[in-house]
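hey so i finally got around to running the thing on that chain from the lab meeting. sorry it took forever, my laptop kept dying and i had to restart like 3 times. anyway pasting the input first so we r on the same page abt which one it is
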Amino acid sequence: MDDDARSSPIFTLHGVTRRFERGGEVVEALRGLDLAIARGELLLVMGPSGSGKSTLLHLLGGLERPTSGEVLLHLAAGATALASGAREAPLDLARLDDERLAELRRRQLGFVFQEFHLLPTLTAQENVQLPLLLDGVAEASARAAAARRLAQVGLAARADHLPDQLSGGERQRVAIARALIADPPVLLCDEPTGSLDSVRGQEIFALLRSLAHDEGRTVVVVTHDPAAEPFADRVVRLRDGAWLAAEGGGAP
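ok and heres what got predicted. didnt touch it at all, straight out
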């Protein structure tokens, strides 16, 4: 990916607000956020519980819609995941129907969660290849792609193991391989090291950094873990649904 492509945004948010009702009261989870996220950037979103971090990640992933404002996703022409050529007109995630959002989540957005969400009766190989099979890819092609992704995260030798035969760090690597299986330009990670010890956590952050810097993927990580900060290109901090500070790359 060239420098111009890397510096161009893949997400831009304008005036994003998210409100919902809780116990008969209106809660403002996000309050008029503006944000640009560059291609190939490892961005950390930090803040106390209830600050709006997970809500922001859900909006980026099309899992929720903003109450007001725009969440724009800038894809490459033809939606080739890591292409660096011409761009399509940005997609406003708030205006897409459920079917288009589901398609984007399958093919353009990878998700990594704290609890791994691996199917316990499937091997690492089977867990990783499953999204492709569900998307209609031939089994031989899906198996080959899963083998490549497991090798990429250092787990080629563990492909035939069930999740309960793997360590926490290994299970998270399987989850990352699964998130990469469709070759998405974006990874969205919600507390990816929350269930890991400090050593395994640093290994995961090093892997996420390599996916951003070596492959040009955009990686957005919601975390409480201060050990993640040295791996990030930029850290933005939320409190009560508003930006508190940005470090390492200027304003949000």
